[in-house]
Amino acid sequence: MIVAFSVTPLGVGEDVGEYVADAVRVVRESGLPNRTDAMFTSVEGEWDEVMGVVKRAVAAVEARAPRVSVVMKADIRPGVTDGMTSKVDTVERHLSQ
After folding, report:
1. Which segment of the chain is annotated as a signal peptide (predicted)?
2. pLDDT per residue as tens digits for the range 35-47
């Protein structure tokens, strides 16, 4: 499964990059395949391990912010691995034709 999620601290002002970095650090230290862009961090693995990473990432932000907003989207597709790369590769292949 792939989960794309965004963690936003509330009540800490406009500059939230430091808080978001705490969440991304948790994801990167998990060892699971992941990718971060301007809006979301995606992480790939089995249900329990991915949700555990998301929970720890939220907790890292929650430890320093009075309120946290979380947005998640999941692609649950048993038997598929390396979906983060293969899905993008498929689109790129179609674009190059």
Report:
1. none
2. 999 999 999 999 9
